[in-house]
Amino acid sequence: MTASVSAPAKDQTIRLADVRKSYGDFDVLKGIDATVSRGEVVVICGPSGSGKSTLIRTVNRLEEINSGSIFFEGQDIHAPLKGRELNRLRSRIGFVFQSFNLFPHLSAVDNVAMSPIRVKGVPAAEAHEKALKLLDRVGLREKANSYPAQLSGGQQQRVAIARALAMEPPVMLFDEPTSALDPEMVGEVLSVMKSLAAEGMTMMCVTHEMGFARDVADRIWFIDGGRIIETATPDEFFKNPKHPRAQRFLADLRH
Amino acid sequence: MIHDIIAIIDEYWLLLLIGQYPNGPLGGLANTLILSALSIVIAFPFAILLAFARLSKYRVLRWPVTVLVYVTRGVPLLMLVLWSYFLVPLLTGADVPSFLTMLTTLVVYQGAFLSEIIRAGIVALGPGQMDAARALGHGWFGAMRYVILPQALYNMIPSMLSTFVATIKDTTLGYVINVPDLTFAASQVNNQLLTQPFQVFLILALTYYVICWSLTALTNVVERRITRRRAGLAAPRRQLSLITNATEQP
Ligand SMILES: Nc1ncnc2c1ncn2[C@@H]1O[C@H](COP(=O)(O)OP(=O)(O)O)[C@@H](O)[C@H]1O
Ligand SMILES: [Mg+2]
Where is the ABC transporter domain (chain A) (predicted)? Predict the structure, then answer.
């Protein structure tokens, strides 16, 4: 652990400092330095296998790292923490998976209400009421009693977003939230994400939806080979990508 | 023949049902069922613990349990029964009742089998469920209790019923260490009659058959229902979990 790295300033919600990770001999993350400010929407893109999922999963420590630090609200997520402390930090970082990962044995409303009840000790009645409001917000109030198997992919992902929001996290992480969806369902999920961004949510999104990136992102991180090789505003990135690999990546996407 | 069987049942039904009780220890069918039920009830939580240990990232937990599971599964139950019968009193110096010896042996044996079923059930869910639970802030045990086990155990109900059937059959081995169960009662009857072993043991076989067949039939019904539910054809019950009431509305 690099103890010398100072805690970030207040408006930096997330700061990654020289984050490195390898699987055996294979270096997946080769020194990531970056910050996400409060209210900022960062879109992470890059070729498949470049380490995007690994990177975003290290932010709530679903993956361990080999060296470096990741500060969330000034606390190093990868420091030796008590289990309870790590759980508390994690509950403040929403995570949305490519494959939804809803709990199939629970109805939509219970998916959303369960963790506030079990993790935060919110009274069941209150948690259910709040869950219904959140389902309403993602347009699924009438599906509250449906089970995941009875929902379309787009609906499941919207429930998954509501589930993450139920913990009232100041930050939301998305790992390719629309990649597993049929094309006609991508829009409904992106529009929920857009409304979140509009309300000032701090977001890190791994996505290849360049329309979303253009409209919503404050900054784009382009990752290749385990490094962030370009950081730019959407305007700069789409009009004038500096790195040849980013140019090639964009050219490939346009085909 | 049918005549003989009816006569035997008429004469000895109480012995076959409850053994010497109340003049001696409880035995017969009652004891068989109690032994089976107790061993499955104890083996079940034991198996969950074994499965946790087998899935643990810590070697100190994983290795001994792995050895236990492999040894237990690789040795005939009769050997385990004889070992416990001769070894446990030797090691502890205590005079352990044969019922308790048989119960312990069955718990270890069925626990080892069930733990592999449970482990497979947990692994089959894939890592996504655990990831999702952890990302929401659940600890490992919380994730197990509210997310993983309700699904894994529900999916495993058929396997567990089959294990119960197997346990009932396995209790017959208690005969060799004089556990007063149904088999023991039947052999007592046989010893008194001497001339009708075929009839006596036919009654015994039929009794086991009827019990195990009914349970197997039940297993099939449950299995079909679960398959249908998993396919999303029938709306699942509101409350699937055996352990939590996470979903209960106040
Ligand atoms: N558990 C793992 N073990 C070994 N290699 C892995 C593991 N997870 C990911 N990788 C490798 O790390 C690289 C980055 O993976 P990932 O972060 O999923 O990429 P991306 O999300 O950008 O497509 C890939 O080459 C992948 O094969
Ligand atoms: Mg990925």
Answer: 14-250
With cut-offs at 50, 70 and 90, classify the pLDDT of residue A164: very high
**Better-predicted residue by pLDDT, B87 or B133:** B133
What is the distance in A from the centroid of ligand 2 to the CA of A237? 21
Q: What's the pLDDT score for residue B63?
A: 96
- Most A CBs within 10 A among B136, B157, B244, hence the mutation to make, goes to B136
Pocket test for ligand 1, best of A19, A21, A22, A23 (most atoms within 8 A of CB): A23
Cβ of A56 below 6 Å from ligand 1? no
pLDDT digits (tens, 9 = 90+) for A226-237: 999 999 999 999
β-sheet with A12-23: strand ranges across:
A26-37, A12-23, A67-72, A75-76
**Can you give the C-alpha Rg of chain B in angstroms?**
22
B22: preceding bond cis by omega (within 30 degrees): yes
Question: What does the domain layout of chain B look like in residue ranges?
Answer: 2-246
Question: Is the per-residue pLDDT at B78 higher than 80?
Answer: yes
Query: What's the CATH code, domain B2-246?
Result: 1.10.3720.10
Helix (H/G/I), strand (E/B), else coil: B123: helix
Tell me what percent of chain B is helix, strand and coil, each rounded to the nearest 5. 80, 0, 20
Q: Which atom of ligand 1 is nearest to the CA of A51?
A: 17
| Residue B240 pLDDT exceeds 80 | no
A72 touches A171 (CB < 8 A): yes
Q: Provide the whole-model pTM.
A: 0.87
Choice between B220 and B134, residue whose per-residue pLDDT is larger: B134
Pick left, alpha or beta for residue B93 (phi over 0 → left; psi -120 to 50 → alpha; otherwise beta). left
Query: What residue owns the CA closest to ligand 1's atom 4?
Result: A23
**What distance in Å separates the CA atoms of residue B213 and residue B129, rounded to the nearest whole number?**
36
